[in-house]
Amino acid sequence: MKEAENIRQVGNLDIDFIGFIFYPKSPRYISDNKETIETIHFLNLKKVGVFVNETAEKMLENTQKFRLDFLQLHGGESPEICRFLRAEGYGVIKSFLIGSADDFDGTGAYRDSVDYLLFDTKSDIYGGSGRRFDWSMLDRYKGETPFLLSGGLSPDYRQDISGIKHPRFAGIDLNSGFEIAPGLKDVEKLQQFIQKII
In the chain, N or C terminus with fewer CB closer than 10 Å? Predict the structure, then answer.
């Protein structure tokens, strides 16, 4: 999300979190103009900042400026950095890229450091591939930390999402499959999907 009016419209849907990209190389990179910042300030839901290998100082600067509640980390951020951010009063979501069942093995190091894990499809680039990984591998995850599911989710996967019974499955991350353009959400498509999935 990066345009004020689109942010306002999506913010009125029945969702729990809304995300903003703070990775400069992303086409979804958030604008820091006054209207966008004020729109984000007045949202009545959890606001998530997405960062990639950013310094703790810069992340805290943006959490304060945009009044974020959570930081979603998509780089090589350590458990120590995650614990530091939580100690500062923010929720932390750590992304793991999944290409094989072995990719779940690294999650254990973060069990006391984050609020949620996010499982996305393995890709050579930051920002997601728009593809879905093999969800049957979710059974390999034995941790206690709840997880969110990402990676190429679209309205076509409504039945598959409803069929996930993993005890730590906490929600889904809807992104490119619901966009008109990078950072611009199709509000009607989102609304229809949310009404069917909840």
Answer: C
Per-residue pLDDT tens for 16-54? 999 999 999 999 999 889 999 999 999 999 999 999 999
Label residue 148 by pLDDT band (50, 70, 90). Answer: very high
Whether 130 shows a pLDDT value over 80: the answer reads no
Q: How far is C-alpha 151 from the geometric centre of its chain's CA atoms?
A: 10
At residue 191, what are phi and psi to the nearest 5 degrees?
-60, -45
The vertex-90 CA angle with 85 and 92, nearest 5°, equals 70
For the chain, where are the E strands, in sequence order? 17-21, 46-51, 70-73, 91-98, 116-121, 147-149, 169-172, 179-181, 184-185
Tell me, what's the pLDDT at 126? 60
DSSP result, 88-127? TT-EEEEEEEESSGGGGGGGGGGTTT-SEEEEEE--SSTT
48 by Cβ neighbours in 10 Å (0-12 / 13-18 / 19+) ranks as: buried
- CA 144 – CA 167 distance, rounded (Å): 9
Instruction: Name 123's Cβ contacts closer than 8 Å, sequence gap at least 6.
Output: 97, 129, 131
Q: What residues contact residue 104 under an 8 Å CB cut-off, 6+ apart?
A: 96, 98, 119, 137, 140, 141, 142, 143
